[in-house]
């Protein structure tokens, strides 16, 4: 059990919860300021605005509500939050997965006596639809070789990432449910909440694709984010470091640039959707920061070198250009990810050089879109700042 939580050091079985906005690390001279909106996000009511209207998110129509109601029986039969997560993970149809994810979180929030539960055996990969065809990254068609126009291409890639993100969050809930006594109820509440946000993002992307005359599955995609999920399935600290603090943090970097490119392309409606999604990602990164600090605190480990050790071990590359302002807002200290802020030091005090030649095959949320978009000669890549 201890090894599954983190193999760096024996893991105390006391509560991991720490709700203050400033958390002390194992170093008495360091403090970490969390996102100021984290408590408001945690205490926010269920967000049912899953339709993108003329001016932004709206409540679903009665027709959409009836569609969701067909899953109530499945959701109400689940005996625990972990079982609800497993239900989402076992659902292959993307829209059904999104609806069930929202109903699952809604039930969790409305039933205070629903236990987190425990699932000992979980499939390594979630259920997937026949399309999109999952291929290696270098076989995913570039924008100029895709049958989709650029804005639809970007939306399809983003929809794929959001669908993966639903499963990533629920996998975190179900996978680590046997360690409820260590992690505490709030850990599982946070990641179920993240899953609900991601399911709403997928609905917006799917709706906009349909408005443009396309649908999710029209072009091949990769399975790299879920590979990261599998790689970190035995280590909660690595899961937190690699997914929220690397992959989702890259969305903070690329989001504003993608919005500008979509505006330049003339698709203001899509740009508004992407802008809203990027804004909501701050909460997901902040959740990861909070729980990573909490884990490090219980291990009596300094967060910065622990983070760097984990991303090196798991092959997660820190790639710029970085949006320092957004990362600071989310609570990621700059010296965690920016080599210009200092040299990495291990526990013995010896210097470590970043392995810059080791390239992670994993692309994050919006940075993956930007890197592929650059192949389209009709748009000029902005120089990195």
Could you explain the architecture of this structure?
By secondary structure, the chain is mainly α. It has one domain (2-373). Helix content is 54%, strand content 4%. The protein has helices at 2-5, 38-43, 62-69, 72-77, 81-89, 94-110, 150-175, 180-183, 185-211, 224-231, 236-265, 268-299, 303-313, 324-330, 334-337, 365-373; strands at residues 22-24, 31-33, 51-53, 56-58, 344-345, 351-352. Strands 1-2 form a two-stranded antiparallel sheet. Strands 3-4 form a two-stranded antiparallel sheet. The chain has a two-stranded antiparallel sheet with strand order 5-6. A hairpin with a 6-residue loop joins strand 1 (22-24) and strand 2 (31-33). Helix 12 packs across helix 14 (324-330). Residues 6-29 and 343-385 have low confidence and may be disordered.
If you compute it from the alpha carbons, what radius of gyration comes out, rounded to the nearest whole angstrom? 20 Å
Total domain units: 1
Number of helices: 16
N to C succession of SSEs: HEEHEEHHHHHHHHHHHHHEEH
Could you say which structural class the secondary elements and strand pairing correspond to? mainly alpha
What is the CA–CA distance across the termini? 44 Å
The outline comes out as globular
Strand adjacency order, main sheet = 1-2
* Beta-strand residue fraction: under 5%
Q: Outline the low-pLDDT stretches.
A: 6-29, 343-385
Mean pLDDT: 83
Number of strands: 6
Largest sheet descriptor? 2 strands, antiparallel
What's the helical proportion of residues? Answer: 40-55%
């Amino acid at each position: 059990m201890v090894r599954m939580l983190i193999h760096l050091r024996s893991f105390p079985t006391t509560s991991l919860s720490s709700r203050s906005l400033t958390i002390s690390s194992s170093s008495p001279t360091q403090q970490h300021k969390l996102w100021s909106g984290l408590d408001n996000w945690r205490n926010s009511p269920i967000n049912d605005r899953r339709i993108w209207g003329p001016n932004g998110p709206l409540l679903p129509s009665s027709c959409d509500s009836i569609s969701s109601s067909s899953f109530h029986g499945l959701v109400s039969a689940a005996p625990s939050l972990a079982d609800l997560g497993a239900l989402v993970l076992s659902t292959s149809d993307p829209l059904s997965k999104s609806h069930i994810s929202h109903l699952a979180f809604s039930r969790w929030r409305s039933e205070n006596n629903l236990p987190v539960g425990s699932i000992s055996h979980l499939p390594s990969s979630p259920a997937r639809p026949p399309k999109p065809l999952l291929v290696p990254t270098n076989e995913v068609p570039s924008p100029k070789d895709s049958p989709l126009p650029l804005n639809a291409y970007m939306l399809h890639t983003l929809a794929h990432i959001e669908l993966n993100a639903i499963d990533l969050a629920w996998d975190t809930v179900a996978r680590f449910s046997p360690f409820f006594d260590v992690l505490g109820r709030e850990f599982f509440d946070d990641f179920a909440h993240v899953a609900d946000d991601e399911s709403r993002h997928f609905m917006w992307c799917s709706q906009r694709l349909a408005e443009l005359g396309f649908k999710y599955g029209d072009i091949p995609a990769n399975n790299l984010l879920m590979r990261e999920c599998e790689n970190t399935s035995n280590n909660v600290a690595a899961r937190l470091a690699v997914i929220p603090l690397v992959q989702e943090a890259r969305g903070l970097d690329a989001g504003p640039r993608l919005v500008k490119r979509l505006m330049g392309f003339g698709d203001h409606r899509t740009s508004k959707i992407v802008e809203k999604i990027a804004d909501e990602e701050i909460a997901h990164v902040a959740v990861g920061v909070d729980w990573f600090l909490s884990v490090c605190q219980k291990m009596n480990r300094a967060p910065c070198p622990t983070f760097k050790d984990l991303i090196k071990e798991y092959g997660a590359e820190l790639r710029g250009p970085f949006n320092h302002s957004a990362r600071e807002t989310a609570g990621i200290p700059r010296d965690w990810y920016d080599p210009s802020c200092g040299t990495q030091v291990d526990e013995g005090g010896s210097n470590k050089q970043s392995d810059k030649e080791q390239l992670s095959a994993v692309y994050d949320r919006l940075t993956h879109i930007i890197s592929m978009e650059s192949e389209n000669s009709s748009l000029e890549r902005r120089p990195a700042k």
